[in-house]
Structure formats: structure tokens, C-alpha cells
Amino acid sequence: MSSADDQKRLSGEAAAELVENGMVVGLGTGSTAAWFVKALAARGLSDIRGVPTSEATANMARELGLPLAALDDVKTIDLTVDGADEIGPGLSLIKGGGAALLREKLVWEASTRCVVIADAAKKVDVLGKFPLPIEVVRFGHVHTGRRLADIAAEFDLPPPRLRQADRGMVVTDGGNLIYDMASGRIDEPAALATALKSVTGVVDHGLFLDLADEALVGTDQGVIHLR
Ligand code: 5RP
């Protein structure tokens, strides 16, 4: 296992220890969150319910025998644990590398406590090396993409690109598309977040600001707890 995988495993396992019987738990998406889900299932807690942030996580949790609930079936979520593509100053995050940002943000916003888990390479001084994912509705997405390019130019960033996979456009669990805004650095994340949300065709974006309460970052020396 590579050092990064080991760090992801350590952070996922540490987060699984935060779960107590009786809790409703938000289950993140991605390779780090998968370690958390595995470690949580291994604890064999008898009275927890997981709210998955993607179909992939739901399928994995089902296979591991974790009881699930839909977001609409719970009033609040006690604890959500999820990965990130970048962890910047003040626990500002870029998420959505796995195209699950919309469900992730909905689950995070319904949660009392949000813990981000990651390997050490995810920690950055300035957000933006990882391209910022933006989820857009299919209808008129080329037009929306042009509006996003205008916003990008206002922030001195290059135009975002439609995310493609081997079989064509990436389609999210919600049936939407993803544009990725590669930037190098995002100096004004809050202003950019507001500008992106002002575009009607944008469903949401991967800037998670003021949402993470804590981070458990795996390193070769162990897990570092950031608040
Ligand atoms: C999915 C996400 C993931 O949490 C993010 O991409 C990190 O993934 P990984 O743990 O595989 O590095 O936001 O939409």
C-alpha cells in the first residue's frame, strides 16, 4: 500500500472511532471515505444509521451491512465524515473530485459535526491547485459554461472545462454535468463561491467554506487533528 493510501486508511479509521451507538452518520464519498465506511462497519455498532452521499457509497455500505437512511428520513445528522481534494486555510475545502459534491454538501449542511479526512498531500496553503468542480444542469450547459468562463475571467482564472470520462461526459448521481475550473490559486474563495452560485444553470460547486469543523489528516507519523 502506498504512503498516501496508508494515510487515508489511518484518517478513516480514526474517524470511525468518533461514532457512537445511536448516531445518524453522514457517509462521504471517495477512496478516503471508503476507509471510514469499512472501519465503521467493522466496529459492528448495533444502532447507527448511515446517510450516504453517493450511490457508490450507498452500495458499499449495503454490502458491508451498514443500515442506511435517506436524508429526508432524518431530522439531523450527528456526524458526517468525508474526504476532500484540498484542505486550505481555516478548513476551507475543495471537494467534488468524485463528482458527488451536491449530495455531499446537502448532507454536510444537515450535520451537527463535519469531520474531513485526508492524506497529508491534501493540505495546502492556498486553494486552487486541484481544479474546482462545478455541477451544472444539462439543459443549456454550453451556455452555462460560457457564463462560467466570464466569471473565471473576472477572477483571472482560465475557462472551466466539461469533465469527460472514457464513455463521454461525466454525469452525476443527480443527472447533472461537471465543469472543472483549473486555476492554480483561488485567492478569494468566498467571492468566487457567491459568483458561481449566481448562475442559474449552476447547481452547486465544490468550495466547502465554513462547513468543516475538524480535520483528521493522516501522515507517516500518525493522524493530526486540525480544528
Ligand atoms: C467526492 C469527493 C471526495 O471526497 C474527494 O474527491 C476526495 O477523494 P479521495 O478520498 O478519493 O482522495 O469530494 O466528490
Beta-strand level of the residues, as a percent range?
25-35%
Give a quick account of the main beta sheet: strands, pairing sense, barrel closure.
6 strands, mixed
Instruction: List ligands, each type once.
Output: ribulose-5-phosphate
SSE order, one letter for each helix or strand? HEHEHEEEHEEHEEEEHEEEE
Count of distinct strands = 15
CATH topology value of the largest domain: Rossmann fold
Top CATH class of the largest domain: Alpha Beta
Subunit structure: Homodimer.
Organism: Caulobacter vibrioides OR37
Keywords: Isomerase
EC number: 5.3.1.6
Please characterize this protein's 3D structure:
The chain has two domains: 4-123 and 209-221, Rossmann fold (3-Layer(aba) Sandwich); 132-206, ACT domain (Alpha-Beta Plaits), CATH 3.30.70.260. The protein has 227 residues and is α/β, with parallel strands linked by helices. The mean pLDDT is 96. A hairpin with a 2-residue loop joins strand 14 (214-219) and strand 15. The protein contains six helices and 15 strands. The chain is 30% helix and 26% strand. Helix 1 packs across helix 2 (31-43). The protein has helices spanning 3-16, 31-43, 55-63, 101-109, 141-154, 189-197; strands at 24-27, 49-52, 77-82, 86-87, 93-94, 111-119, 132-136, 161-162, 164-165, 168-169, 177-181, 202-205, 207-208, 214-219, 222-226.
